[in-house]
Amino acid sequence: MANHAHESHHEPHVLPLSVYYGVFGALLVLTVLTYAVSFAGLPLSLSFGVAMLVASCKATLVAAVFMHLIWDEKINVIVLAVSVLAMLLFFSITLMDELSRGLILPEEGTLYKQHEEAALKEIANPPAAEHGGGRESGKAEHKAAAGAAEGSAAAHAAAPAAHAAGSGEGSAAAHAAGSGSGHH
Amino acid sequence: MSSATNAHDDAHGQAHHKFHQHHFLTMAQQASSAKFGVWLFLGQEVLFFSGLFMAYFVFRALYPETWLHAAEQLSKTMGGINTVVLLYSSLTMALAVRSAQLSDKKGLVNNLIQTIVCAFIFLAVKYVEYSAKFEHGLLPGAAYHGHEFIPGRPELFFTVYFTMTGLHGIHVIAGIGVLFWILKRAIRGDFDSTYYIPVENVGLYWHLVDLVWIFLFPLLYLVR
Questions:
Q1: Are A68 and A103 members of one domain?
Q2: In whole angstroms, what separates CA B106 from the centre of its chain?
């Protein structure tokens, strides 16, 4: 349909005035909403989420109607979509690094270090009760545990649940836990 | 040169248009190529600003308390007024393109002037805001000497604030420049329903300036 108009004699695609005023009205309402929400005293993460959601709605309205993307050649939509995707990729990977740094830097007394130490203790101690063995076997166990610590694969395997919980609940929560433990 | 090519018809048998450039087959191709180029530029703008937004998110994650308190030093009302001013200028810009599509020169000129006036109002409000920040020593980096206690690293918040709004402001100033260029051409009578791609492209740029502000406003002014 649009193609046909294009070929015969690129007639401009003129929208009725009501569309422009309608979008402007919606943008004003959304602005008042985001302004009001900022005074509502919501929890910080929620109010941040609402603000970003409202801003994204406003941006979509402007791009779709004022910038004519709905009726435009799809290649222009692709250009915008790709750059927004690249931006989100950039954000997520950088924030993943930033927010998880506390988990893996050993000198910061971190979750990772705690998990590793807990795993080491588990490897070193409980079997001692079962074996109830002499000093020589105890030494051997200690050596084995140290070896496992260096490999750190065992430490990882020993605390998968804790790791999963950390990453599952969102990196912010993990970060909070990490910095909290640092103060102890 | 133009008289020599006047008789030359394009692929669709239409008479040669005054603004038809020779390296394009048709006016439609010329328009869609120009618009595609502008969209590539806008894609680059998104990525360009994303670096600044990234800096904002990283510093906010590191110093959440600073962000909470430093943002209270900004005037939500002034930011809100500027948001409405930019939204209205986006409306008049879109209406300017519509007027050009309808070969309505008077409407085109009228809407372009309104857009330019809004851009100046935006800068004037920004000037008032910046002056207040300068007065209170709420400046970026080492220049920071605010008297009110803000926990953490307030100078980082104001570094981010001035960099982001400053670069956005430079975009507004550049926008005023291209809007004046379009206004001059509109008054000269260059644009009608067969040729208005420069109006449309300047409009796209202006809407992007608005888009950036749509995110800057809640992030900087409405932290709580």
A1: no
A2: 24
Ranges of chain B whose pLDDT falls below 70: 1-15
Helix, strand and coil percent figures for chain B, each rounded to 5 = 75, 0, 25
Judge contact between B178 and B170, C-beta under 8 A.
no
| Together in a domain, A119 and A164 | yes
- DSSP assignments along A3-51, one per residue: HHHHHHH----PPPHHHHHHHHHHHHHHHHHHHHHTTTT--HHHHHHHH
Residues of chain A with pLDDT under 70: 1-10, 102, 104-116, 126-184
Estimate to the nearest angstrom the gap between the alpha carbon of B201 and the chain centroid. 12
Within this chain, do residues A12 and A56 fall inside the same structural domain, yes or no?
Answer: yes
All residues of chain A having their beta carbon less than 8 Å from the beta carbon of residue B217 are: 34, 55
Cα Rg, chain A, nearest whole Å = 28
What's the structural domain count of chain A?
2
Q: What is the pLDDT of residue A13?
A: 85
A92 within a domain of the structure (yes/no): no
**A35 has a chain B CB within 8 A of its CB:** yes
**Interface confidence (ipTM) of the complex:** 0.89
Residues of A in contact with B32 (CB under 8 A): 73
Boundaries of domain holding A130? 99-183
CA atoms of B158 and B167, how far apart (whole Å): 14
| Short-list B93, B145, B155, CA closest to B122 | B93
Interface A-B, measured as beta-carbon pairs within 8 A, has a size of 137
Instruction: Please indicate, yes or no, whether residues A130 and A174 belong to a single structural domain of this protein.
Output: yes
Indicate whether A80 belongs to any domain: no
And the tokens for A33? 């909403």
Give me the domains of chain B, ranges plus CATH numbers.
27-221 (1.20.120.80)
| Least Cα separation, residue A148 to chain B (angstroms) | 34
